[in-house]
Design goal:
Layout: H1 3-23, H2 50-74, H3 77-94, H4 101-113, H5 121-137, H6 140-144, H7 147-153, H8 164-170, H9 173-186, H10 192-195, H11 200-204, H12 209-222, H13 228-232, H14 236-244, E1 274-275, H15 286-318, H16 323-337, H17 344-352, H18 356-391, E2 402-403, H19 419-424
Antiparallel strand pairs: 1-2
Length: about 425
């Protein structure tokens, strides 16, 4: 790290202490909406003194700082592994994965679109701090600080690469997951990131058996396909990917000038995050390249509008995750089809004295809100697809091999493949 970066980190730490002292509040209150999700007994941490809040935030900043140093300056794969062990023990099993930066996306969305909810300070800091470090040093949070990534990194023994066609399709899933997670949280419906967290049951040594099985299957698959959750599901990874592209400093494959030995090209990175040298490569004709660029540029508004229209038409179906819509449709099915409504919510409704007309009016209001919000999720997805295609037309000249700053997890697996690195040790 440079002295300037260290100064930034120290300044941020001081500001966090001051802010925490002024605005400390309940650490992680449950959002004010109910779902059919059955929370584990330990879903909410026991009330603790605010000192523990400070410790958690300081632990996060310290872990990110040390990981940045290990990845960029020290270039120690072994050190990153030990940091992964620490993060898994502290942020995973000790803190039971709550609150994590991945799930905090939902708290931020709920706070932005609902005046009745105030985001806990800890949740906000856990959301912002890794993004700040990504802007400085790349995805060091993914490297060894995120407990979800750490548990997968420690089980990835025999990495293999997926075909590029499969990889191209799979990496689009986190964008859809992020869009739906923000939409459902903003609409006060569900926290789907928490509901379908595959490792939270493992961290807490309890939980729904279906999700525990899902987590175990991911770990088994991760032996060969490294970090399957991080690569093909994690919604927070989408944000880290974007911020990391503008990182001031980033992990490099070689500590000195690349000699283009190509030893890192095939086996070093299981995430296909190494950009090859363009020296001696075939270059597309400038007129043809310009035509492709203009074509993909013209497709961006098409994809954006199409995404908005698709999600608008899907709004009634998407709104079914909301408790009031579920209840209204259950009561309507009882009226029309004679299917008795036997859920706890239906029983409570029948005893409440509320009329069916009032319930159906609430349903209509919720669906209307979804129709207004869902197109924006579609716009995000369409815009992401268009920009992704446009990026494929960029042909940047490179004299050596370097990591893709958005896709690279800063895990340090590539260090041992570089003969320059080995020689300098």
């Amino acid at each position: 790290m440079t002295k300037r970066s260290i100064h930034y980190i120290v300044l941020l730490t001081l500001l966090l202490f001051i802010t925490a002292g002024l605005f400390a509040q309940e650490r992680f209150p449950r959002p004010e909406f109910q779902t059919d999700y059955e929370y584990p007994e330990n879903q909410l941490p026991l009330q603790r003194s605010h000192t523990w809040d400070y410790i958690d935030v300081v632990a996060l900043i310290s872990a990110l700082s040390i990981t940045s140093w290990l990845a960029i300056k020290k270039r120690s794969r072994r050190g990153l592994i030990w940091m992964s062990v620490f993060s898994l023990v502290y942020f995973g099993f000790f803190r039971q994965g709550c609150i994590c930066s991945v799930g905090s996306v939902q708290n931020v969305a709920l706070a932005l679109f609902n005046n009745t909810y105030t985001i806990p300070l800890t949740a906000l800091l856990f959301f912002l701090i890794p993004l700040f470090f990504a802007l400085l040093f790349g995805r060091v949070f993914c490297a060894a600080v995120c407990p979800l990534g750490a548990i997968q990194e420690l089980t990835g023994f025999r990495p293999v690469k997926l075909p590029k066609a499969v990889e191209s399709v799979m990496i689009a899933i986190p964008f859809a997951y992020l869009a739906l997670a923000v939409l459902f949280a903003a609409m006060e419906s569900q926290f789907i990131i928490c509901k379908y967290d595959p490792f939270i049951g493992i961290f807490r040594l309890n939980g729904r058996y279906t999700m525990i099985i899902f987590g175990v299957l991911l770990l088994i698959a991760g032996i060969f396909i490294n970090r399957p959750y991080c690569r093909y599901l994690c919604p927070y990874g989408v944000l880290l990917n974007i911020f990391s592209r503008f990182a001031g400093k980033h992990l490099s494959i070689t500590p000195a000038e690349c000699i283009n030995c190509r030893l890192c090209e095939e086996d070093a990175c299981p995430y296909d995050a190494i950009l090859p040298s363009t020296v001696g490569q075939y270059t597309e004709d400038i007129p043809q390249s310009r035509k492709r660029f203009l074509l993909y540029l013209a497709l961006i508004p098409v994809f954006t509008i199409a995404g908005g229209l698709i999600m608008y038409n899907a709004a009634p179906a998407l709104s079914s995750v909301h408790r009031d819509v579920q209840l209204a449709r259950e009561i309507r099915a009882e009226q029309i089809m004679g299917v008795e409504a036997v859920s706890e919510a239906a029983s409570a409704f029948k005893e409440s004295g509320q009329t069916e007309e009032e319930l159906f009016a609430i349903e209509e209001s919720v669906v209307s809100r979804f129709k207004k919000a869902s197109p924006w999720a579609g716009v995000f997805l369409g815009l992401s697809l268009g920009l992704g295609l446009l990026e494929m037309t960029r042909k940047k000249y490179r004299t050596g091999y370097k990591p893709h700053q958005g896709k690279c997890y800063s895990c340090g697996r590539c260090f041992k493949y570089c003969p320059v690195d080995i020689k300098t040790r």
